[in-house]
Design a protein that fits this description.
Two copies of one chain form a homodimer. With 243 residues, chain A is mainly alpha-helical. The first copy, chain A, has a domain of 166 residues: Tetracycline Repressor, domain 2. Helix content of chain A is 64%, strand content 0%. Chain A has ten helices and no strands. The interface between A and B is large, with 41 and 41 residues. The structure holds a DNA duplex (18 and 18 nucleotides).
Chain lengths: 243, 243
DNA sequence: GTCTATAACCGGATAGAC
DNA sequence: GTCTATCCGGTTATAGAC
């Protein structure tokens, strides 16, 4: 039940010389290698431990469960994503472009793990799992991710109405979750369908946000925002989900 | 790999006197009881077998895996849902009302299983699992479910444009999936948040469908439909997902 | 051929010694 | 921080009963 420090491994322990950190890294690397090669299910903890040159029990000393290894991967691709987005967003002003860049980059950086990304989503969908992206334990990464969407908006030419503004980053994050869900199930070559989905919907979303504040859509916007306010309670911390 | 007959157990074998059918029913009932009481994870196959008065191996004779027990439950609530919707839709003409009825009823009939519905979604989200609602194996139930949404439209006062019509049932089904995902994570008392979500969004969806064909939104509609056509290939059988 | 039971196997997870 | 030994439960193999 105490899952406070789940994301400690998200940090890149580059400079650290602690032996533990190096062992942990070895285990994680072995796990990712094996999963890429054989898939998640066929990668046993025993095999991971052996490949990393440690005992089974030792692997569990560093990672509470097999699924927690996945969360480490989650944090890993998240960092990669952030890093990759930086330069690409640099000169770009168009909201639509910025949005598309972030989403396409998300897919690009996750692509090597497509084969076993399903497992991530599998555990992600379970409300009881601390790995699920709505859980308290996932809050750090989730918040960083939502912050990225806030950055998309801020650095762009987009004008957002006052009522919508506080909700938009989280809405875009949810949209990204939907895209990822599609991607996980996408079997088209090079995930071209997901690319298409992103192209089309990012344009759509951008148009939608632009016209949302205009008179004809005012009442619709109002009811959407009303709903969001009701679902995400005063204390802004959590997403729509309670745990 | 051969998952042809997964849904055989969806039929209600009411009249059948076959001993096997009764044994199967006993196992399923025991499993659902135990899961309701202790949750999915803590319900062991050994306990299910014992409660049903059969041996462990025998339980596996009837259900290929623990997860397949869940799929039986899935088929069960699906039947319940269909049955419950019938009379409620009887006199109703309003599209908005019909939509809300179907969704609320879905929640009502699933409510007893809320505690362990997460597991359903967990396996459902895994693209590799035959239990996932997009898989070929799930096609029968999925198609029935989509057909229900077609019925909502047909029996209503709604006028749908020619371009949108063939896509609408599946779109509404996808919308329902989203609602269910929310519900799975909903911890509010009596899932009042999910109720609220349904109230608000069903109204919204209904408005949206109504105005979708109007001139100002014509280009938007066109691009959405273009996307859907691209994503759901000519052979209409499957959803957007390939397996 | 339909059904049932027993005895393994395998891999995730834990306990406790060093 | 690392190991070995062990548990536990999903799953499978297999043999026999109706």
């Amino acid at each position: 039940m105490t899952d406070e420090l789940l994301y400690a491994n998200t940090k890149t322990n580059a400079g650290t010389t602690g032996k533990g950190e190096r062992t942990r890294a070895r285990i994680l690397e072995a796990a990712l290698d094996l999963c890429r090669e054989h898939g998640y299910e066929k990668t046993t903890m025993r095999a991971v431990a052996k490949a990393a040159g440690v005992s089974l029990g030792n692997a569990y000393y560093y990672f509470r469960s097999k699924e927690h290894l996945i969360q480490a991967f989650y944090g890993q691709t998240h960092s990669d994503h952030l890093e990759a987005c930086g330069p690409l967003l640099e000169g770009e002003q168009s909201f639509r472009q910025r949005l598309a860049i972030v989403l396409q980059t998300k897919i690009d950086t996750s692509m090597p793990y497509h084969r076993f990304a399903g497992v991530l989503f599998k555990t992600a969908a379970d409300p009881a799992s601390p790995l699920n992206p709505f859980s308290d334990a996932s809050a750090p990464v989730r918040d960083e991710s939502i912050a990225l969407f806030a950055r998309i908006i801020e650095g762009s030419d987009l004008r957002v109405g006052k009522a919508l503004r506080p909700h938009l980053p989280k809405l875009l994050w949810t949209y990204q979750m939907g895209v990822i869900l599609f991607w996980v199930h996408d079997r088209s070559p090079d995930c071209s369908r997901t690319r298409l989905l992103i192209d089309t919907t990012s344009k759509l979303v951008s148009q939608l946000v632009r016209v949302a504040g205009l008179p004809p859509l005012r009442p619709v916007l109002r009811s959407v925002i009303g709903l969001l306010d009701d679902l995400a309670p005063p204390d802004d911390k959590a997403s729509g989900t309670r745990r």
